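Data availability (excerpt). The following record was deposited with the supplementary files.
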Amino acid sequence: MPGENNSSRLIRSMKPMLHEGEFVFCTFDKIDDAIVQEAICMLKETEGFSVILPRKTADERNYEYSFVSAWITLMVHSSLDAVGLTAAVSKALAEANISCNVVAGFHHDHVFVARKDGERAMRVLEGISRRR
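Predicted structure:
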């Protein structure tokens, strides 16, 4: 099923959802099944694997991390070739002085912001959704 391409409709219907918990970005030279089972997201880069994990998992396994984030899912099925959603989200958050890291999945876009900014980021995203 193809996702939505119209940027105005995407922004209007994105319905951000804040996940419970805290999430961290870790790096590994190689990954094992235990990491794969707990991963929110994995990306193989030249330097190794970047993996987003629940903070609890990272703490239990003594994995190093430096950034604790909140995870927001935009609950609209955006097309992978849609133009404008990521730009609108990152622009609105930047104007509110909130750093964001965006990950696109097949069905949804996911935004990771500093944990302390999670609720405020939700208000910003809900605000731009209402204005469209």
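Summary of structural features: DSSP finds five helices and seven strands in the chain.
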